[in-house]
Amino acid sequence: MTAAPEQRPATASRTVTRHSGDDDLRALFGQSIAVFASLAGPTHVLEAANPAFFATIGEERSRTGVPVAELMPELADQGFIDLLDQVYRTGEPYTGRDARVVLGTGPQAREVFFDFTYEPRRDPDGSVVGIRVIGVEITQVKQSQRLLTEHRALVEQIARQAPLSEVLDGMARCIEDLSPDGVLVSVLLADPDGSHLRHGAAPSLPHFYNQAIDGIATGEGVGSCGTAAHRREPVIVTDIATDPFWAEFRHLAEPAGLAACWSMPILARDGSLLGTFAMYHRTPRAPQDTDLALARLFTDTAALAIERHHIEQAKTAAEASARSALEELAKVVRAERELRAEAEQRAATAAELNARMRTAATLQAATSHPETCQLGGTAGCSGPAEIKIADSWGDSAWGCTTHVEEAILNVRSVFIASEELGGLAAYLNR
Known about the structure:
It is a single chain. Helix content is 42%, strand content 21%. The chain has 3 domains: 21-137, Beta-Lactamase; 143-287, GAF domain (Beta-Lactamase), CATH 3.30.450.40; 347-428, no CATH class. By secondary structure, it is an alpha+beta fold. The model is unreliable at 1-21 and 24-32 (pLDDT under 50). The strands form 3 sheets. A 6-stranded antiparallel sheet has the order 8-7-6-11-10-9. It comes from Paractinoplanes rishiriensis. Pfam families: GAF_2, PAS_4.
C-alpha cells in the first residue's frame, strides 16, 4: 500500500513588485507638507514632484519634463542652480538652513525661507544621474522670529519713553514689512473727548489723504475708522468702492489707491478710546486669521504706547503746575518781604521825624518863627521855614515844603497848624 502524498495547506499566491527608491520617496512625500522633487540629468529636468512643491512654486507652473532653470528662471541669480550643478558634479549632498528664496518676478514675487537638502541620485553603477530635492518651508517661523524681534524693539522704545510719533511710525513700518500682501498701516489718535480722530502715523499713505482725514469725527458710517471708534469694535470693509461706510470718502480713497480697510479701536485699560489702528489694501480682500492676529497684537502695543504717552503728558503738566505754584509762592514771599522792609523803613522814618519835631519844639521855645527849616534832623536843612505843623501831643515845628510833606506822609497824627499859627495858608499856597 502506497502512502498518499503529503497534503500541504493551500496558501494564497502573492506577487512582490519591486519598487525603486525614487518610487518609495514619491509615495512617502506624496501628501506631505514637505517639498519633494526629483531631477534628472545635468540640466536638472523635473521628473516628478509632490503637490507641496507645485503649491510652493505656483500651480500655474505645475508641469514636468522641463529643466528647473526653465521652469523657475528666478533661481539662477540666487545661486540655487549653481548648487545643483555642484552636487551633480561632485556627488556630495548639500544641506541649506534658513535659505531665503524669492519665488516669482515683478509684483508677484514673494519671499520664502527653506531648510532643504540636495541629494545625488545614482544608477546601479554608482554614477550620478540626478538629484533629489527635499525641503521644509520655514517662512512662518522666520516671520514669527522677525515679529518677536520687532515687537520687542517697540516695547523697549516705549519703556525708554521714546516720542509717541517715533514709536507709532516704527510700528507701522514694521507691520508693512512683515505683511506679505502689501498692507498700508494707519494709526489715528482720539481727542480727549473721543469725538474726533487725529493723525498719528501713516508712513506709506499719501500726504493728501492723511491731511484730509486728520480730525474726522467718530460716528456710525464714518469710514472704517470713525465707525470702529464709535462702536468700540473692529470694522472690516472688504471693498471700499461699494461699502456705504465709505460713501463720503471714496473720492479720497480712489486717488490714494485704496480698495479695502480693516480698522480696530485702540482702547485703554478702562475702556476709553485712545484711537484706531487700520490696515489698508490696494485690492478688495477679506482678512485672514493671521491678519487679524497681527492687528490685535499691534493694537495692544499701540494702546500701551499711547497710554504711556498720556501718563507722561499728565506728569509733565503736573510738574509744570507745581513749578508755577512754587514760582507764585516765591513771588508772594518776596512781595511780603518787600512790604515788611518798606513798613520797617517807614517806621524808622516816622520815629526819626518824631524826634525832629520834638527837637524843633524845644528850639521853638526860644524863637517863635525860625528862618530856616527845623525838620532837617542832624543833616540840617537851609530851606526857609514856611509851614508850621503840630502833632496831637502839642509839639509843633516849622519846616520847608519838602520836609513838611515828608512828615505828613510818614508820621501819624501830624497836621498843619491853624492859620493863626501861620501854617495852613502857607501850605495851601505852596
